[in-house]
Amino acid sequence: MTRTTNLGTALVTGASAGIGATYADRLARRGYDLVLVARDEARLAALAEKLKVDHGVAVDVLRADLSAPADVRAVERRIRDDAAITLLVNNAGIGPKGALLADDIDYLDTMIALNVTAANRLAVTAAQAFVARKKGTIVNIASAVAIIPELFNGTYSGTKSFVLAFTQSLARELDGTGVRLQAVLPGLTRTEIFDRAGGSVEALDQSRVMDVADLVDAALAGLDQGELVTIPSLPDKADWEKHEATRQALGPNISHNKPATRYAAA
């Protein structure tokens, strides 16, 4: 039997496995109905049936390849037209196959299309729809490499830096509208992304790899606590607050009508 709650419907991208599938399970436990989005329709259908049985919620499947513009627009239409949608988990993405200089440029273009272009379009669509509805939540899945990009493939790090900066800027624009935002910055997480990229999560230092269930539970706890940026592995929130304070302190000096004297011609 399907139960009804006042939470509405959560649309989760990249929902067939890993972080997205775990979000779907946790949100269903909370009482959200679901729209599951991914390329693998068979896996989505199997997950949908399991969630219906386990949690008694309504679950729709929307097959979409978010590196394809037409499929992105189909998901946009669902967000705009379905007034029951109150939460977007913007999770779909792919990782690198290796070091940047050894990677395939066409693959990197696909990564940008999925990690940046699709994520941007869906978040802006949701923001516009949620402002009109006077409520809603957008969760953007970034990565810890957004703040330490030199540790990883440059294109991938750049896409995740975009997600973080986009979320921070959009949050300011949405202040007072009733729409909430969160950027989640996972570190290494036990998902299929490593296998898809031709590697193995087992080859990593296991003391640095978080279980996906722990990651999502921490991210949802951060959302409940009202965090704009959640770094599930970070022990002391004050470290992030100091980082942000230092960044904000640059603000008064990043635009003047004359160059700094240290750049004056000899």
Characterization of this structure:
A seven-stranded parallel sheet has the order 3-2-1-4-5-6-7, with helices on both faces. The radius of gyration is 19 Å and the shape is globular. Helix 5 (154-173) links the parallel strand 5 (136-141) and strand 6. The protein has a single domain, classed as NAD(P)-binding Rossmann-like Domain (Rossmann fold, 3-Layer(aba) Sandwich). The chain is an alpha/beta fold and 266 residues long. It contains eight helices and seven strands; from the N terminus they run βαβαβαβαβαβααβα. Helix content is 45%, strand content 14%. The chain has helices at 18-30, 41-55, 69-81, 105-133, 154-173, 193-196, 212-224, 237-249; strands spanning 9-13, 33-38, 59-63, 85-90, 136-141, 179-184, 229-230.
DSSP strand content = 5-15%
The multimeric state of the shown protein is single chain
Structural class: alpha/beta
Instruction: Provide the CATH superfamily.
Output: NAD(P)-binding Rossmann-like Domain
**CATH architecture, please?**
3-Layer(aba) Sandwich
Proportion in helices:
40-55%
Head-to-tail CA distance between termini:
78 Å
- Helix and strand string, N-terminal first? EHEHEHEHEHEHHEH
* Spatial order of the strands forming the largest sheet: 3-2-1-4-5-6-7
Rounded to an integer in angstroms, the radius of gyration calculated over CA atoms is 19 Å
**What's the number of domains?**
1
CATH fold title: Rossmann fold
What count of helical segments does DSSP give? 8
- Poorly predicted tracts of residues: none
User: What is the C-level CATH assignment?
Assistant: Alpha Beta
What is the global morphology?
Answer: globular
**Number of beta strands:** 7
What does the average pLDDT come to?
A: 92
Please summarize the sheet with the most strands. 7 strands, parallel
Protein name: SDR family oxidoreductase
Organism: Shinella lacus
Keywords: Oxidoreductase
InterPro entries: NAD(P)-bd_dom_sf (IPR036291), Sc_DH/Rdtase_CS (IPR020904), SDR_fam (IPR002347)
